[in-house]
Amino acid sequence: MDFRRATRDDAERILQFWKESAASIGVTDEVEQIGRVATNLRAVLLLAVLGDEIVGTLLGTYDGWRGNMYRLVVHPARRRQGIARELVRRVEQVFAEWGVRRITVLIEVDRPWAAAFWSSVGYPRDERIVRHLGVLDSRRGSQPPQAKP
Length: 149
Known about the structure:
Elements: E1 2-5, H1 11-20, H2 31-38, E2 43-50, E3 53-62, E4 67-74, H3 83-98, E5 103-105, H4 112-120, H5 136-139
Parallel strand pairs: 4-5
Antiparallel strand pairs: 1-2, 2-3, 3-4
């Protein structure tokens, strides 16, 4: 198994891998966006690769304030083999090199196994925080609804 940074050329394969692995696909999960994040200096999109097959991904970003981890996805046939733990360890190494001191992990509430995994690798749930989400593209050019007389 090899672990390497994704490149722009990997973007289509990564998106296909996420779809095949039953990851939730959102508005930012497009080939162009994935290619952009793969070349971002404040991000590491790490791949676990077996032969020429992607079997795991983890995206780590740093906004100058804290590190964030997203898109921890392991192929269903490859789960429980230590791939996710190794991806986390390697992204943590990159974060340490960047001087990151605090890391946030986002987990979908309908995936309790994901919450259990993150707790097991040292990322307990923070009950003080709730996430609010807006999608910028849906608000561009739109006007607020008008009150009816």
